[in-house]
Amino acid sequence: MVQPKEESSTRRRLLHLLKTGGKCTVSELSIALSITEMAVRRHLHAMEKDGIVGVTTVRQAMGRPLYRYALTAQADDYFPKNYSQLTLDLLAELEEQAEGTAVIDRMFQGRRDKLAQRYEERMRHRPLEDRVRELALIQNGGGYMATWERAEENGGFALHEYNCPIAHIANQFRQACHCEQQLFAQLLEADVERTECLADGGGRCTYAIKPRL
Questions:
Q1: Is 24:84 a contact under the CB 8 Å cutoff?
Q2: For the chain, first and last CA: distance in Å?
Q3: Per the database record, which ranges form the HTH arsR-type domain (predicted)?
Q4: What's the structural domain count of the chain?
Q5: Are 58 and 69 contacting, i.e. CB atoms less than 8 angstroms apart?
Q6: What is the CA radius of gyration of the chain?
């Protein structure tokens, strides 16, 4: 019986082979992996269902058509990325230029404004509690692992984020944190104060939300 670790290892090797070798047949993959063609087909079928492998039919002059398997664009997510370091390098380079800090400020503010426009329809004509709930859903969609709760006083709420997908950037460019707080205040139409921050060594980012008087 194939154990989960072996399943994972074979899948990784298949991904590597298809990434480096391009379109391959079941027979070619079977030989390269030293496993049966039946086992290869089983893995490929599962990867097709996940949307990371596609198959192309190649007609031949004689005999049966040939089936070649290749990775889809979705499979790109399974390979290492270094976007955060590239972003940091570009921002640092920009910061060294004349008026670099002011330009970076405008970039983050522009991102804040675009996000506000993107989500304002989801907030429109809703009471504050529904807005907070919707904001948590939005942040969870971005990988922030957000939760929310009612505060004990003032009819307010607390929003907690246990993960920061842009932590490497926020740690160096705090404009990201400031603009997030401003975005929340704009979307919620409420007073928003950050009381804990991952970038400051906290265990989470917490926002205290109070209705505007």
A1: no
A2: 65
A3: 8-53
A4: 2
A5: no
A6: 24
Query: Domain range holding 25?
Result: 4-78
Residue with tokens 């040939």: 66
127 and 29 co-located in one domain: no
DSSP β-ladder status, 53-58 and 66-71: antiparallel
Is this prediction's pTM over 0.85? no
Q: Which two tokens stand for residue 25?
A: 């047949």
**Count of beta carbons in the 10 Å neighbourhood of residue 24:** 20
Q: Specify the pLDDT at position 1.
A: 37
Tokens 């804040």 found at: 112
Contact 34, 23 (CB under 8 A): no
**Residue-level pLDDT at 40:** 95
Buried b (16+ CB within 10 A) or exposed e, 134-157: bbbebbeeeebebebeeeeeeebb
**CATH number for the domain harbouring residue 203:** 3.30.1380.20
CA distance linking residue 170 with residue 167, whole number of Å: 5
